[in-house]
Amino acid sequence: MTTLTADQIARVKATAPVLAEYGTTITKHFYKRMFANHPELKNVFNQAHQQSGSQPEALARAVYAYAANIDNLGALGGAVAHIAHKHASLNIRAEHYPIVGENLLAAISEVLGDAADQPTLDAWAAAYGQLAGILIGAEQKLYDGAPWSGFRPFVVVRKEMESDEITSFYLKPSDGGKVCDFAPGQYVSVKRFVQAVGVDQPRQYSLSDAPNGQWLRISVKRERPVERPAGYVSNGLHDDVVAGSVVEVSAPMGEFSLDRSKTTPVVLMSAGVGITPMVSMLASLTGEGSARQVAFVHACRNGGVHAFRHWLNEIVARHPNVSRTVFYESPRAADRQGVDFDFDGRMAWAKFVSLALLPDADYYVCGPLAFMREQVAALHAAGIRAERIHTEIFGSGMLD
């Protein structure tokens, strides 16, 4: 692995303020340049996130964080693990890194011009080599431990609506092989050809059932065009995939997962389709007969989009160690006739603190970015230590 000199470290760190100002301009130019030189990589990168600008923005933040912490890489440990799992799920390999490095360094030079002299560019080349070595090593360990390499064909054996927006797909290996184990909370990538962009596109979906040796289940939200015009793969799964269809699936990855070795309480907090990894965690705990105290807290718009509500009610009825708190932001008249939710409005910590502020509990949080930030801030304000708060963000966003 590349070792940086003190001068190289100082030069990279000195560019952090410049990256804070021009980072997104650099990363947008980088992606444009790389795809022009290597159009085959469009199959790897989410083109919807390219169109929205979220991927260049996320990369700009990551590059800035690396520059700012170049002299304290230990601070990036969690970020490295997160990126490594994402990359391994997308089958990014060591041979991709020189391509990325060449185009990223060229983009820095072309955007900054004379502001980036040759010694600074050389320092960044060394810094990129260091980071690439760290990620390649972390990803290789994940590949070595994975049940298969790359993408594997799975047949959809069942398709089931969970709400007005979310549909579950039950997947089995098309070769009749074994269904792998995984850690509850992990995800897989599903790859489909998207006619609108003319390339294969991978998307990551949380596994939404306990490991059972029979199938892998993903539960996918249909993206409404007025909100997210892209939704290429998710809407394609809803519209075009039926029982008997074959999809390409990566091995399970993700560091956001239930620690099954503990016996302390668990609080599962979700909003919208963020419920999917929480269902996997709760199903695993109850399926194993765990006596751990579990508080399941969920928020959604109304009963029409409340996925897994009947399943959750049955779980709570059968397991006295499991509690349920559900918020409907805009309940319908019909919702008020049932027993599927507890509070009107957005999730508010003060309304369920007596159930969720549990001694020594681990808090798992998943949902839209604004929801995540709000709930994590509430947990910190309540005195929950950072190491007991676990988060998963769908897409290319970042909590901070």
UniProtKB/TrEMBL annotation:
Positions with a binding annotation for NADP(+): G272, V273, G274, I275, T276, P277
What EC number(s) has UniProt assigned to this enzyme? 1.14.12.17
Top enzyme class, one word, equals oxidoreductase
List the PROSITE patterns.
Answer: FAD_FR, GLOBIN
Question: Which positions fall inside the FAD-binding FR-type domain?
Answer: 149-259
Chain residues that bind FAD: Y187, R203, Q204, Y205, S206
Q: Where is the Globin domain?
A: 3-140
- UniProt domain comment: Consists of two distinct domains; an N-terminal heme-containing oxygen-binding domain and a C-terminal reductase domain with binding sites for FAD and NAD(P)H.
Protein's name in the database: Flavohemoprotein
Source lineage: Bacteria, Pseudomonadati, Pseudomonadota, Betaproteobacteria, Burkholderiales
